[in-house]
């Protein structure tokens, strides 16, 4: 079964937030400032994921079949392939070395 890019991203962001890299080693933030930046980056990435679906909802409302963001997220909109949404593909690129990264996302 194909990896769901949203599940993949949410898992990687949670790992980043916990300070764990793909090899399971802890990443120590060198300062409080770095730690705050890391947490803020993770929060921003989660919001970008939500924003991607809101954006697709607005496009689908104008030119498609008016699906809700949630419906699109669940893969129910015939016009949107979740694993091909450009913003999500961009967010996934830093994790290209992860074993669950699908080469089709490159
Ligand atoms: Zn639709």
Walkthrough of the structure:
The chain has 106 residues and is mainly alpha-helical. It has one domain. It has 4 helices and no strands. α1 packs antiparallel against α2 and α1 (5-18) packs parallel to α4. The protein binds zinc ion (ZN). The site of zinc ion has 6 residues, from loops.
Order of helices and strands: HHHH
Range of strand content: under 5%
Mean pLDDT: 91
| Domain module count | 1
Helix percent reads 40-55%
Major β-sheet profile: none
Class by SSE composition:
mainly alpha
Unreliable spans are none
Helical element count? Answer: 4
What's the alpha carbon Rg, rounded to whole Å? 15 Å
The hetero molecules present are: zinc ion
What's the number of extended β-strand segments? 0
Quick overview:
With about 110 residues, the chain is mainly α. Helix content is about 55%, strand content about 0%. The chain is built from four helices and no strands.
Please give the structural blueprint.
Blueprint: H1 5-18, H2 32-63, H3 69-73, H4 86-92
Helix pairs in contact: 1-2, 1-4
The protein binds zinc ion.
Residues 60, 64-65, 67, 77, 79 line the site of zinc ion.
What are the main properties of this structure?
single chain, 106 residues, mainly alpha, 55% helix, elongated, binds zinc ion
């Amino acid at each position: 079964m194909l990896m769901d890019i949203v599940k993949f991203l949410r898992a990687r962001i949670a790992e980043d937030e916990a300070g764990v890299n793909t090899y399971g080693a802890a990443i120590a933030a060198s300062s409080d400032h770095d730690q705050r930046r890391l947490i803020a980056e993770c929060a921003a990435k989660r919001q970008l994921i939500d924003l991607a679906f809101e954006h697709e909802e607005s496009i689908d409302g104008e030119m498609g079949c008016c699906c809700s963001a949630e419906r699109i997220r669940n893969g129910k909109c015939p016009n949107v392939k979740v694993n091909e949404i450009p913003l999500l593909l961009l967010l996934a690129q830093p994790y290209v070395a992860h074993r669950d990264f699908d080469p089709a996302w490159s």
